[in-house]
Amino acid sequence: MCTEECKKKSAIFIDRISNLPKNVIEGILMCLPTTDAVQTSILSRDWRYSWSSIPQLTFSRNDFPMLDDTEIEWEYNHRLVKIIDQVLLLHCGPIHKFELSLDMESCSDVDRWILFLSRNGIREIIIEFWMGEQYQLPSCLFSCEGITHLQLQWCIFIPPPFTRFPNLRFMYLSGIDISEDGFEAFVTNCPLLETLELTYVSGCSGLKVCSGSLLQFLYEGYYIHISFENTPMLASVCVVFSEVDNEEGPTPSSPNYELFDALDNLLGIEKLILYQYTLEVWAVRDVPANLRMAYNLKHLAVDMDFEAEQEASTLFLLFKSCPFLSSLNIWVFSSDDDDQTSAEDFWDKQEGLHNLFCHLKNVDLIGIKGTRSELMFIKTVLTNARDLRILDVECHEDVNNEMMMEMIKFTRTCTKAQIIVKNQEEVLYQ
Least buried of 63, 118, 133, 305, by fewest C-beta within 10 Å? Predict the structure, then answer.
């Protein structure tokens, strides 16, 4: 009887985790925040240094909150520096990923950490500051030719001449001060770069994107001139101009053909996203002399003001230039410009629409208020999109109910497609 009980008790206390293969334990530790991984050293003698060989270290703001309201900023910074120094001192082996995203001001200690990483096989580096002055990146960062993933926030990005990251595939820069010429040369010297994301960069009036390997591009921020050159693989482009007027930056030229100039150099583009003020900024009054076809463009998402004729005209030209468009997403975005020409009868006046939506299958319209221009656009789609499968209309809270009933009436004329009309609370028609 005693033997049976002893066996049961011993079975309860069997340490099954410690006997797992080293690579499995390492995988478990990498799923934990770095602070928790380090704390496993107190479990037993076998676990004391298990964390010290994990190839990724993450120091994020969620894992290092201030102790309490009485901890002042310099004490917080000093505590963080001491912790990171200790972790790096005890770590052995390569560090493939390092993330520093803390509520601390940039400091010279970061230079030491980056120098340490440059000598330990770093591949992914994320450095995000949220306060204080922009951090001047040390030159040793640009000698890390093994980097595949680079993510920087609130830094000064001035790569030395002829800097080359032969393995870089992903780059995200936010709140970064960059030099126009230096940035162009840097991107050109990253032969494997696939994803480039820029948000609220400063220090330049324009960007020329030149990369034969680039697949995805995103820009968000104030208006700057954006052009593309030698980007045959670029399949997805997202541009978000958050402001029309930037007192310190450039202003769009008139007439502005940047959108269609860009399409001329984006022969492989499959997905185009133009949010916030982008369509307004890139809107054109006249048809470009040579409207090149974007035969690969199948997905289009825009924020637009249906009441602005110039934006409607630009959208119409986009439709004409992408004959194989299959998916369309429009968020109704009211412009602040009171001087724009009304587009109330725009879609009624257009000719040759029967070939405009030959391949269109899915349409999402969000924020519809039931204005005449919106309803005429919906009617145009239903009349000409012969292969339409789904039309999903989400109404604005201030929707015109009479107009909405009129829209529901003529949506019934399209028998092939599934029509969904809803507001934020319920489905009104299906």
Answer: 133
